Amino acid sequence: MTSRERVLAAFAHEEPDRAPAWCGASDEFIEKAKRYLAIPDDEQLFVRFGDDFRRVFASAPVPETPLMPGVTYRSVFGVDRHGFGYGMPMGHPLAQASLSQVHGYSWPDPGSVDVSRIRSDALAWRGQYAILGGDWSPFWHDAIDLMGMESLLLAMHDQPALVDALLEHIVSYYFEVSRRIFDAAAGAIDVFFIGNDFGSQRGPLVSPAMFRRFLLPHLARLIRLGHDYGLKVMLHCCGSYAPLIPDMIATELDALQALQPCGRGMEPESLKSQFGSRMVFAGCIDSHHILIKGTPASVRAKTRRILDIMMPGGGFVLSASHDKLLEETPVENVVAMFDVPRDYSN
Q1: What's the rounded Cα separation, in Å, for the pair 287 and 326?
Q2: Separation of alpha carbons 49 and 338, rounded Å
Q3: Could you tell me the CA-to-CA distances from 328 to 23, 132, 227, 239 in Å, in that order?
Q4: Average pLDDT of 260-275?
């Protein structure tokens, strides 16, 4: 099987020749792994790991004003952030906003995103890999950045119309950006890959009722967009959120990534038995306790155990339980994880 065939079989809940694999990694880990394995470039590294996916991106708009000293990143919605990676928000511009101020905010123009290269970038892989595309669309995170988490949660109770308006503006931007990407890519993308973290380590960040009231309609809107273009839709979602999965299934979400087995209620056996025929799960190899703290032997044993649980009937993609492998992850442990499916038979 090609990598693309392998992934599409898993998404169809059929057992492929081996478990498809997905490797998300930080830039720091990638550089470390290339040095450790004496591999000259990123692509050869992903080939070595057996990554069955490739991802294409549109070009983000350039901020209209330069970043001030101390600002390491500015979101598309104008929230300045400071710190490692994307950092933490330095302020919440809509924390005390009225409904009219939400509508009057300087919302970004989807047309400022450059999609001119997206099709050629996707076709460059010549159908070998499953192509991830579309805007990441972290609308829940953006709402938190714009209002602050406490203000947002209170507004869900006290000012629901304001929260509705806020989310509508955010999601409408992402919807239009992804629509433009899919029009430009014209069938060259396989999976619409989006990301929102709805869980803590102990449970969902909002109740199932509040999730259905405020967040699920917007998630469903993005899922319908992907399906309208014939794409599978995969949601990256960290933490513990098992009580929300039935609602996600009801919206016809195809896949969840990256399952964290140490989160409350996220045990792979339970999720596979309850939802495995209706949801593709990606992840399951604990980034913290197994990949960072384990040994190659313990990683191989855990990976084989996860494959025993998750592979039957298809619907599984092997990956770490975090969206990106961190620099402190031993390269030999990652090699051990990705080498197991090549030898595995249940």
Answers
A1: 9
A2: 6
A3: 16, 26, 38, 20
A4: 97
DSSP string, 138-167: -HHHHHHHHH-HHHHHHHHHH-HHHHHHHH
Asked if 321 contacts 283 with a C-beta cutoff of 8 angstroms, the reply is yes
Q: To the nearest whole percent, how much of the chain has pLDDT over 70?
A: 99
How many beta carbons lie within 10 A of that of residue 230, not counting itself? 10
Distance CA 310, CA 308 (A): 6
Average pLDDT over residues 143-153: 98
Name the DSSP class of 241: -
- Could you say which DSSP state residue 116 is in? T
Six-digit token string for 40: 């000259």
pLDDT of residue 345: 65
In order, the DSSP letters of 167-187 are: HHHHHHHHHHHHHHHHHHHTT
Mode of pairing for the β-strands spanning 88-89 and 280-285: unpaired
The contacts found for 101-105 with CB under 8 angstroms, 24 or more apart, are 102/162, 102/165, 102/166, 102/169, 103/165, 103/169, 105/169
Which helix (H) or strand (E) segment holds residue 256: the answer is: strand 255-259
176 phi and psi angles, rounded to 5 deg: -70, -40
Domain boundaries, the chain: 3-343
The phi and psi torsions of 284 (rounded to 5 degrees) equal 85, -20
66 Cβ neighbours under 8 A, 6+ residues apart? none
> Could you give the strand order of the β-sheet that contains 255-259, starting from the edge strand earlier in sequence?
53-55, 130-133, 191-195, 232-236, 255-259, 280-285, 316-320
What is the pLDDT, as a whole number, of residue 333? 98
**H/E segment holding residue 326:** none
Amino acid present at 174: Y
The yes/no answer on whether domain 3-343 falls in CATH 3.20.20.210 is yes
pTM for the structure as a whole: 0.96
**pLDDT tier, 62 (very low <50, low <70, confident <90, very high otherwise):** confident
